[in-house]
């Protein structure tokens, strides 16, 4: 399925697409993006970010930042630990919409439900990143942004291979936890991380 503007065309006014990335990783922020496409300058190749190579995703993200209106919202690991994953997901999306320079009249959300606390009316679309161009574009912006963040965090916290696993639970990440312990970027509410926490191996950087 190729995403198009069918859902966007069902609403009047300004419509944004919203998607998140980073629900499952053991470390790093949960990031959401909101985007209002310029229909006169939509880059070619927009689709679900998971279907794109990292190089292609970065190239399209750069074009979107030039042509579209984008907002980014994130929830860092300590806040996610405090409020929980579902609330963090909702908060990141609300922050992304609020980061736009103009409040949309309507938001198309990737997912099964409309998140709580949205600053505008919203409609959830199951597998929306494969159906709506705006949501697909948001998925690209969110993924490219989070990947760049994780590459930076990998420099600050070497040994966990975040530059390649983006904080997900790979063997290299698990080996890093065993050797180096838990950092401030790890999600302590996630069971695989909790299992590594102890007084002697927890570090706070």
Give a brief rundown of this model.
The protein has helices at residues 6-9, 54-67, 77-83, 85-98, 133-156, 162-165, 171-180, 191-194, and strands at residues 15-21, 30-36, 69-75, 106-110, 122-125. With 205 residues, it is an alpha/beta fold.
Strand order across the biggest sheet?
3-2-1-4-5
CATH class of the largest domain: Alpha Beta
Biggest pleated sheet: 5 strands, mixed
- Helix/strand/pairing class, anyone? alpha/beta
User: Shape from CA axes?
Assistant: globular
Number of domains: 2
**Count of runs of 4 or more consecutive helical residues:** 8
- pLDDT averaged residue by residue: 94
Low-confidence stretches: 199-205
Topology as a string of helices (H) and strands (E): HEEHEHHEEHHHH
Describe this entry's structure for a reader.
By secondary structure, this protein is an alpha/beta fold. It folds into two domains: 6-155, Nucleotidyltransferase, domain 5; 157-194, no CATH class. Helices cover 40% and strands 15% of the residues. The chain is built from eight helices and five strands, in the order H-E-E-H-E-H-H-E-E-H-H-H-H. Strands 3-2-1-4-5 form a five-stranded mixed sheet. A hairpin with an 8-residue loop joins strand 1 and strand 2 (30-36). Helix 2 packs across helix 5 and helix 3 (77-83) crosses helix 4. The longest helix has 24 residues, at 133-156. It starts with 5 loop residues before the first helix and ends in an 11-residue tail after the last helix. The model is unreliable at 199-205 (pLDDT under 50).
């Amino acid at each position: 399925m190729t995403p198009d503007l069918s859902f966007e065309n069902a609403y009047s006014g300004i419509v944004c697409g919203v998607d998140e990335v980073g629900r499952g990783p053991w470390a790093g922020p949960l990031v959401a993006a909101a985007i209002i496409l310029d229909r006169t300058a939509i880059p070619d190749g927009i689709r679900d970010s998971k279907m794109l190579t990292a190089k292609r995703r970065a190239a399209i993200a750069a074009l979107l930042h030039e042509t579209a209106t984008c907002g980014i919202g994130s929830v860092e690991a300590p806040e996610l630990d405090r409020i929980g994953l579902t609330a963090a997901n909702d908060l990141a999306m609300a922050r992304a919409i609020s980061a736009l320079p103009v409040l949309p009249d309507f938001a198309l959300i990737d997912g099964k439900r409309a998140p709580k606390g949205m600053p505008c009316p919203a409609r959830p679309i199951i597998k929306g990143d494969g159906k709506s161009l705006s949501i697909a574009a948001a998925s690209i912006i969110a993924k490219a942004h989070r990947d760049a963040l994780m590459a930076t965090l990998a420099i600050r916290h070497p040994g966990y291979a975040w530059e390649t696993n983006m904080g997900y639970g790979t063997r290299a990440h698990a080996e890093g936890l065993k050797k180096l312990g838990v950092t401030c970027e790890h999600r302590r509410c996630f069971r695989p991380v909790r299992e590594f926490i102890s007084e002697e191996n927890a570090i706070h950087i």
